[in-house]
Design brief:
The protein has 393 residues and is an alpha/beta fold. It folds into three domains: 232 residues, Rossmann fold; 64 residues; 77 residues, Outer Surface Protein A, domain 3 (Alpha-Beta Complex), CATH 3.90.930. Helix content is 43%, strand content 16%. Helix 6 crosses helix 8. The radius of gyration is 23 Å and the shape is globular. The termini are far apart. The structure holds S-adenosylmethionine. The site of S-adenosylmethionine has 23 residues, from helix 1, helix 3 and strand 2. It comes from Gloeomargarita lithophora Alchichica-D10. This is SAM-dependent methyltransferase.
C-alpha cells in the first residue's frame, strides 16, 4: 500500500468509527438557516447578482459526512439535484437516513467515492460544497484540482480548511496523544486525550484553550476524535491557502465570513494604520489580520470557475434595469427589526421598509423607485450591498 492509500484508509477508518458530524436525525426540514448552502444567496454574495432563472442546478457535496450540509443544500435549493460523496460507508448510511427522514431523498444521490475520483461522476456541477475535507487529504492540491475539473463554467465552490495558528494547542495535544497511544485505535486515542485534559494542571495552556474554546463542541466523542486523534491534517496560512487556490486555476471570490476579515475589527482605534493597511494588496491585508489575530482557526471562502460575471452594483443605469428581489434569508420580515442573512440585527428606516416591501421580483429598480418617490437609487444600492435585496439580471 502506498502512503497515500494508507492515509486515505486511516481517514476512512476514523470516520467509520466516528461518523461526522454527530448531529441527531430529525424528521422534516433542518432547523435554522445557513446562507452558504443557498446557491442564489452564495451567488449574490460572491458576484453581486442572481440570474432570472437557474436552469439545471446540480450540486455536489464533496465529503458530505453524515449529510447535515447535504440536507440543507437540498432544502434551501428546492429545484436542485444534490450528490453527496464520502469515503465512509458508516457516514453515508446516516446521511441516507437523514435525507429520507427530512423528505428530500428523491433529489439526493449518495455515493461512496473519493474526492479525487470525482471525474468518474461524469457530471458538471453549478455549485460544490467542500467543508472540512480538503485538509484531510494526502494531497489537498490534487483534491481541489479534481473538484475544479467538475465545476461548471461560471460555477461556484464553497470550501472550508483549517488555519494553522489558531490550532496550535490542538496540534500539540494531537502530538501528545500520538506519543502515548499508538495511532489507529481511535477510541483509545479519545480516552487518552480526555484523561490528559482531566489531569494536566488547570492552568496548562492546552487545557485552558480546550476549556475556553472547544470543550462545548467536544462533548461528543466524534467531535473530540475529529479534533485530537485525526490521522491526517494539513493546516493553512493565508500564503499557503492562496497557493492552493492558484494551483486549482479557480478564482478567489472572498471569504464567506467577511466580518472576521474587516481591518476595522482590529485597527479602528488606529485610523492612520488602518489607512495604511487599506492600501496594502488584498492578500497582504489578510496576512496582516492573520498576524494580529492568533485565534484564526479556519478559512471559509468562495471560489469560482471562469467565466465569472461580477456586478458591483455601482453602475446606475445597470442597477436601474435590474430586478430587485427581497432576500429570502431575512428573519423577521415583514417588520422593521430583522436579522440579516448572517444573523446580524438590522433596523430598517421607514423608506427602506417600503422599498423592501416592493422588491417582490416583478418590478425593475426604476419601477420600484417610481412607486417610492422618497427613495433614492443610492438606498437601493445600499440594500443590495447589505444583501437585504438581490439584484436579478
Ligand atoms: C470533518 S468531516 C466533514 C463532513 C461534512 N462535510 C461537514 O462539514 O459536516 C470530513 C469528511 O470527509 C470525508 N473524506 C475525507 N477524505 C475524503 C476523500 N478523499 N474523499 C471523500 N471524502 C473524504 C470523511 O470521510 C468525512 O466524512
Amino acid at each position: 500500500m502506498t502512503d497515500t492509500n494508507a492515509i486515505t484508509q486511516a481517514v476512512q477508518n476514523l470516520y467509520n468509527v466516528y461518523p461526522f458530524p454527530p448531529e441527531p436525525l430529525t424528521d422534516g426540514a433542518p432547523p435554522g438557516y445557513n446562507w452558504r448552502w443557498c446557491v442564489p444567496a452564495a451567488h449574490h454574495f460572491a458576484l453581486g447578482w442572481v440570474p432570472h432563472a437557474w436552469g439545471e442546478l446540480n450540486i455536489l457535496d464533496a465529503g458530505c459526512g453524515t449529510g447535515v450540509g447535504t440536507d440543507y443544500l437540498a432544502h434551501l435549493n428546492p429545484t436542485a439535484q444534490v450528490t453527496g460523496i464520502d469515503l465512509s460507508p458508516a457516514a453515508l448510511g446516516i446521511a441516507q437516513e437523514r435525507v429520507a427522514r427530512s423528505g428530500v431523498a428523491h433529489r439526493v444521490t449518495l455515493q461512496q467515492l473519493s474526492l479525487t475520483d470525482v471525474p468518474q461522476l461524469s457530471q458538471q456541477y453549478q455549485y460544490i460544497n467542500c467543508v472540512g475535507v480538503l485538509h484531510h487529504l494526502p494531497d489537498p492540491k490534487a483534491g481541489l484540482r479534481a473538484l475544479a475539473g467538475v465545476l461548471a463554467p461560471g460555477g461556484l465552490m464553497h470550501i472550508f480548511v483549517y488555519a494553522l495558528w489558531g490550532r496550535w494547542e490542538i496540534r500539540r495535544m494531537q502530538k501528545a496523544i500520538a506519543c502515548l497511544q499508538p495511532p489507529g485505535d481511535y477510541p483509545a486515542g479519545v480516552a487518552m486525550g480526555r484523561r490528559l485534559f482531566a489531569h494536566l494542571p488547570a492552568d496548562n495552556r492546552l487545557v485552558r484553550r480546550e476549556r475556553e474554546r472547544w470543550a462545548l463542541d467536544n462533548i461528543q466523542d466524534a467531535t473530540f476524535a475529529d479534533m485530537y486523534v485525526h490521522p491526517q491534517e494539513i493546516d493553512y496560512t493565508v500564503q499557503t491557502l492562496f497557493e492552493l487556490i492558484a494551483d486549482s486555476g479557480l478564482a478567489f471570490l472572498g471569504f464567506s465570513n467577511p466580518r472576521y476579515w474587516r481591518l476595522e475589527r482590529l485597527l479602528a482605534p488606529l485610523p492612520e494604520l488602518l489607512q495604511t493597511a487599506q492600501g496594502l494588496p488584498q492578500q497582504q491585508q489578510y496576512e496582516l489580520m492573520e498576524a494580529l489575530d492568533p485565534e484564526l482557526s479556519h478559512f471559509e471562502l468562495f471560489l469560482g470557475r471562469q467565466p465569472l460575471a461580477h456586478f458591483d452594483g455601482s453602475e446606475a443605469t445597470l442597477v436601474q434595469q435590474a430586478t430587485p428581489v427581497r432576500s429570502p434569508c431575512l428573519m423577521g420580515w415583514p417588520g422593521r427589526s430583522l436579522l440579516d442573512y448572517d444573523y446580524q440585527a438590522v433596523d430598517l428606516t421607514p423608506v427602506e421598509q417600503e422599498l423592501l416591501a416592493r422588491c417582490e421580483g416583478d418590478l425593475r429598480v426604476n419601477e420600484v423607485l417610481a412607486q417610492v418617490p422618497s427613495a433614492t437609487l443610492e438606498q437601493v444600492q445600499d440594500l443590495q450591498k447589505r444583501q437585504l435585496i438581490w439584484l436579478k439580471r
